[in-house]
Write a structure and sequence with these properties.
The protein is an alpha+beta fold. Helix content is about 45%, strand content about 20%.
């Protein structure tokens, strides 16, 4: 399991000091905030992972109220946007005259530069994605307009984004075969599409660009270090535009790359000239750095383990 970059639990607090411990924890992990809850028996934990340019914070708490004041904002040297996803429980959010409730399976963007209040009436499990403002504005130039909107209800792309966030769990991060920064960029692209802040041309010209991009990804898929920036540069477009075009076309850089690598591996396994090459070497020649990840992905895609697949063909 991927090791966290930070972990806080009220199990480490003295008896009756859980809430005080928690307030200090969220100020350290996030930004200066206040919280209120059961002052005698409050329980919570927070696990933080660096995920490329963003941070993933998995939060489990008892019922609580959390708020950020203008005074706290004035004292802060930096601020972030937070993309909140509810795995379990409900969260009421109030900010800038807007109010909404995040239900399980939904997500919302909140700006820490404006006062807010979170109301969590029951035990909850939340993913809070901490996003640097400068990074987010490369995807959402008008990011403030997209805050306090339950995105899965807002658009089909919001539902797609929420589904992707739901797959991010502490015990699943080590199964992500792409660099975390690449996956973070795909989240940025889906967020831009979910909020309508995108400028993607999918005219016949745009469709041709998708085909060229996926062809380049396939041609270079054996390179284990292949990055979106290299493919974008080869076509004279920005990395941001590449992600948006692929997402609007129903795929992503990561999905296209994994599919190309799996198809390449399948072709090598079918070729008798490679019958004596080990499965680990097949994985490496196809762009997979980790043979176990390759075997799991191959089984998921084709319904059979790579070793058995080759055996059925060549005996």
């Amino acid at each position: 399991m991927t090791a966290p970059d930070g972990f806080w639990s009220t199990d480490d607090a003295a008896p009756g000091m859980g809430l005080s411990y928690w307030i200090e924890a969220i100020c350290e992990a996030f930004l200066e905030m206040k919280a209120d809850g059961d002052r005698e028996n409050f329980a919570a934990q927070l696990t933080k992972f660096q995920f490329g340019p963003i941070d993933l914070n998995f939060v489990d708490t008892d019922p609580q109220e959390v708020w950020r004041s203008r005074a706290a904002i004035a004292r802060s040297r930096e601020n972030f946007f937070y993309l909140l996803y509810m795995h379990g429980g409900h969260m009421g959010v109030a900010q800038g005259g807007r109010e909404a409730i995040i239900a399980p399976g939904n997500c919302m963007l909140v700006n820490s530069r404006e006062p807010y209040r979170f109301s969590l009436p029951d035990k909850n499990h939340c993913l809070s994605v901490q996003i640097p403002q400068r990074w987010l504005r490369t995807w959402l130039p008008q990011a403030d307009d997209a805050t306090v909107i339950t995105l899965a209800d807002h658009s089909p792309w919001g539902a797609t984004l929420a589904s992707a966030l739901g797959n991010l769990r502490p015990d699943a991060l080590d199964r992500i075969v792409l660099p975390f920064g690449v996956v973070a960029d795909q989240i940025g692209a889906m967020l831009a599409l979910a909020t309508g802040h995108q400028d993607v041309d999918l005219s016949p010209h745009g469709g041709a660009l998708i085909r060229r991009l996926t062809r380049t990804i396939a041609e270079q898929s054996a390179d284990p270090a292949l990055e979106p920036a290299a493919v974008a540069a080869a076509h004279g477009i920005s990395k941001r535009y590449l992600h948006l075009v692929l997402a609007k076309g129903g795929t992503s850089f990561g999905a296209a790359l994994i599919e190309a690598r799996l198809n390449r591996a399948k072709a090598l396994l079918e070729d008798r000239r490679f019958a004596r090459i080990s499965i680990s070497d097949i994985a490496w020649r196809s762009g997979f750095a980790n043979p176990s990840h390759f075997a799991r992905r191959f089984r998921q895609r084709f319904g059979i383990a790579p070793t058995l697949f080759r055996k059925t063909l060549h005996g």
